[in-house]
Structure formats: C-alpha cells, structure tokens
C-alpha cells in the first residue's frame, strides 16, 4: 500500500512545483523555440478567431469564444496557448484534487495531506501537457467537464430540496451547453443525469448492468439507431490515418458486432494497439495506470457511492459512442481523456477512503 505519510506536506508542494517548472521548460522549448504547431484544427481556430465578421456559430463553441476575444482586442494565439498550459498544469490538478478530496476526506483539518499528492499524480498525466501546446479545444473542454462534475458532486451531497433543484437545473443547462463542444459528450452527460439514480437500487450489480448494457447495444444495432456512427467509421474502418486500426462494424451479425466492438474497445480505450514504440510508451505511461484503476474499482465496487456511480455511468455511455464511431488510435488519445479522468477520480476516492479514512482513526 502506498504510504502517503512518506511525503510531508511541504515536500509534496515542492515536488508539485518542481514538476510545474519542468513542464514549463518543456512547454517554452517546444512552443517558442521549436515553434510547434499542434494540429490543423488549431490553424482553423486561429483563422476563424481572426476573421473580421463576428462568428456566432461554428462546429464547436471554441472558435466562437476566440473570435469574441479577438473583437475585444484580447486574442493572441501564443498568449491563449500559454493560458491553456497554465490551466492544464495548475487549474486542472487543483480542481481534480478538490473533487477527490470533497468525496474522500471526512476530516477537514487533514485535507492538505491528500491535496498535493493528488495534484502531483494528476500533473503526471501526459495528455494535459500534450494538448496545451496550441489552441485546440481539449483543455478547455476538460476544464468545463471538471467544473460540471464538481457541481454534480455538490448537488448529490445537497440535502435542501430547493437548493438541490437549483443545482439540477444548472447541471441540466450545462449538459445541454456541452453539445456545443462535442455533441456526444453533451448527450452522455444528459443521459447520465437522467439515469444514474437507477444504479443506486439494490437490484443492480455489475453483472446485471453488463447484461442490460449488452442487450441495449444489440437492440440499438439491430434497429439502426447507431447507423450514423457505423457509417462514419466505415465498412473497414477509417480509410486514412497513420494509426488507423482497420476494424469495421457495418453489416455484421450480432455476435460479430459485439466481439469486434469489445476488441475495438481493448485497442482504443485500453491502449492495446501496440503498433510502434510511441504506442508502447503511451500504453505504459497512460493506459497501464488506467487499467490498474479499473481493476481496483472492480474489486471495490461494493464501496461505490452515488457520485462515483454517476462518473462510471457517464464513462460507460461516452465510451460507447466514440469507440463505435472511431477507428484511429491518435483520435482515441484525445477522446478517451474524458474516460480516463472520471475513472481515475473514482479510483482516488476509493483508495483514500479504503486505506486512510476508514482504517486511520487519527484522521
């Protein structure tokens, strides 16, 4: 068992600051000395941001934000990128640490014992740094997502009916707004908000939920409800991309569909598509901790509370859509952030509650 007492409060802060300094050096070298440009998406966002006409709609809401800043005279691609770096390196670790603490730590006066350790672990997540090198939308989406689940956490703990109702309305509006950033992200959040309470019934357990999930998936496939995702993926997967897997889900019988879907999940979500050294490194530093967290949660599933069930149901629904529709490991790296973070939050809550809150009478 990890002994958190090994790291003192002050040493944890120093380690966090050291990581931030190292990431800052990497960021400035790659961004400004090597003049790194992240993706074609970032170039498109920059073009839309700097256009003369006011942009009131787009494929997603990020270029609308940037265009608005530009008309206020506040837009600069490098400065926005720097703020995204600060968000990924400081704001997200602090916010995620706060979410875990709020659920896991009972005694308020001991909270800092966990806060900085969690911040260190989150700071090591490589995708946060990778997606902060340019003005792509991923870091902003993750920030909005973490704010969303923080409000959900408050709502679940709230006992006053009026206040709880207000929080639910805020969450509902937030879910609808997230459609403007990624449609199936908003759909997963909205669906989770509607159905997560069912998971708290004693009737439901892991195996029953799994059976119901597979039945619904089969029905959706047979009725053509997911045809738009299957057609987007293509009969033989994506036709281009260096990390395309090459698995199609169209025109399969039910058994073939389920087997190929689960196989695609293993390759994309769990990172087992080890086609080159980069994929192997990514698997070791990103997927292995995720797999460990999933196993740990499964072993301790009887200790899950309402908030943790909410996060896991969201992760399942969101994962279903993008795994069916996507056939590229590079794209999966971007999409699965919203699966990895909720699962790691649940793992952190369970780990602290099991090993430090329940057993440590001094807390």
SSE blueprint and pairings:
Layout: H1 9-33, H2 40-49, H3 62-71, H4 77-104, H5 112-123, H6 126-130, H7 138-157, H8 161-177, H9 183-195, H10 206-222, H11 227-233, H12 254-268, H13 277-299, H14 306-325, H15 329-335, H16 337-357
Helix pairs in contact: 1-5, 2-3, 4-5, 4-7, 4-16, 7-8, 8-9, 9-14, 11-14, 13-16, 14-16
Q: What would your notes on this structure say?
A:
- With 363 residues, the chain is an all-alpha fold.
- Helices cover 69% and strands 0% of the residues.
- It has two domains: 1-36 and 76-136; 200-363, no CATH class.
- The protein has helices spanning 9-33, 40-49, 62-71, 77-104, 112-123, 126-130, 138-157, 161-177, 183-195, 206-222, 227-233, 254-268, 277-299, 306-325, 329-335, 337-357.
- Helix 2 (40-49) runs parallel beside helix 3 and helix 8 (161-177) runs antiparallel to helix 9.
- It starts with 8 loop residues before the first helix and ends in a 6-residue tail after the last helix.
